[in-house]
Design brief:
3 domains, GroES-like_sf, nine-stranded mixed sheet, alpha/beta, Rossmann fold, Quinone Oxidoreductase, Chain A, domain 1, NADP, ADH-like_C, oxidoreductase, ER
């Protein structure tokens, strides 16, 4: 069967779409949908048979790829065994999947690098399939649309979020249609990709987890990091007195530029004591903690009555189990946030993503992209991120 189908495709490949009768087109579309023939798709075949955007009877739409064909295989980072950054391996022959119902295929231009990618790679956050492709955000062009997709078409410029095993560290990614954001005309692919996870996380923290009020005092740990910088900017724009925590003097300067009125070097100073001194003993209304193990206890200790401890990251390690009775001091409230549960519906995603992209284009959120790596150097990006050698946002440029 496999050989027979292959031979039939080779006979058809020189023909243009207009030369094929209805039965032939039906046979071709049915074959394309089969798993075995999907691996045989060649650039020659798609160039000849789908030189224009065509909607097949099986429901998916292929674009002219802006005159580029969808290849049979692609480059992608794959993880076959969890562990250190060395487990990120570049594969050059990963099959390109076609979109299924309510999904689109995006040709990536950029993928963002986030701490959660290291959690997937290390096994802290298990991924069900192996090998898998990491990466939770990207931006590019829609090149194919699956059945039952409304509002998206080939050629659209989009940013998106996703999850392994079909991550964004790849030339092509199949993305659910409810996790796509239209890129504003004035924004480029890199900025759009960089806005997704960290930008939307920051927006959710400051407007949903604990909505910052004018006059609040808040503490932001890792205030020079990719997400922390954005949290500080949004909190300051809302009228809060923002206290930042940073690990080095260089990062302290980045935090001040992001809107922190005071910055504490938590490796040299007692974090809780300094916060209480700055607030004249009142404490803070909220702590936005992306560091985890190294700052969690101090964050709890400097909350005011009914304060909010918002934990959103594990940069220094996972927070150990602790006695819930500790929350009774000042009747403080604890939340461990996950972006995905703020955007579980298409409407929630559209609301949060549109507000985030508007804040970037309007200048309220100022991105700081400090590291650009090739797709093949993803492991270097992970090493730099985990080594706490970076500020701002790290990006992977995907070959197109």
């Amino acid at each position: 069967m496999y050989t027979s189908c292959k031979n039939n495709f080779e006979k058809l490949s020189p023909l243009r779409n207009s030369d094929l009768d209805t039965c032939s087109r039906l046979r071709m579309l049915a074959a394309i949908r089969s798993k075995s023939i999907k691996l045989l798709l060649s650039q020659r075949l798609l160039n000849s048979c789908f030189s224009r955007t065509a909607t097949g009877l099986h429901g998916f739409t292929l674009s002219a790829m802006t005159t580029r064909a969808i290849p049979a295989t692609m480059q992608a980072i794959q993880v076959s065994e969890v562990g250190g950054a060395e487990k990120l391996l570049l594969a050059r022959d990963v099959p390109v999947a076609l979109p299924t119902p309510r999904t689109v295929l995006v040709r990536n231009h950029f993928a963002g690098v986030n701490f959660i990618d290291t959690y997937h790679r290390s096994g802290l956050y298990p991924v069900s399939l192996s090998p898998f492709t990491p990466g939770v955000e990207g931006a590019g062009i829609v090149v194919a649309v699956g059945p039952d997709v409304a509002g998206w078409k080939p050629g659209d410029r989009v940013a998106y979020i996703t999850r392994p095993p079909t991550g964004s560290y790849a030339q092509y990614t199949v993305v659910p249609d409810g996790k796509l954001a239209r890129i504003p005309p004035e924004m480029d692919f890199e900025a759009a990709a960089a806005s997704m996870i960290q930008g939307m996380t920051a927006m959710s923290l400051v407007t949903l987890a604990y909505p910052v009020q004018k006059g609040d005092a808040v503490l932001v740990t890792a205030a020079a990091g990719g997400t922390g910088r954005l949290v500080a900017q949004l909190a300051a724009a809302a009228g809060a007195h923002v206290i930042g925590a940073a690990s080095t003097r260089e990062k302290a300067e980045v935090a001040r530029e992001a809107g922190c009125s005071d910055v504490i070097l938590y490796g040299e100073q007692d974090l809780a004591s300094e916060v209480m001194r700055i607030t004249e003993g009142r404490g803070v209304a909220a702590v936005y903690d992306g560091v985890g193990r190294a700052t969690f206890d101090a964050g709890l200790a400097c909350l005011q009555k009914l304060g909010f401890m918002i934990s959103f990251g594990n940069a220094s390690g996972k927070v150990p189990d602790f006695d819930i009775l500790r929350l009774s001091r000042n009747n403080v409230r604890l939340m461990r946030t996950a972006l995905w549960d703020f955007i579980s519906t298409p409407e929630e995603f559209e609301s949060l993503s549109s507000r985030t992209l508007a804040a970037v284009t309007g200048g309220t959120l100022k991105l700081l992209i400090t590291g650009r790596y090739s797709l093949a150097d993803a492991l270097v990006a992970h090493q730099d991120l985990e080594g706490r050698r970076t500020t701002g946002k790290l990006m992977l440029q995907v070959p197109v």
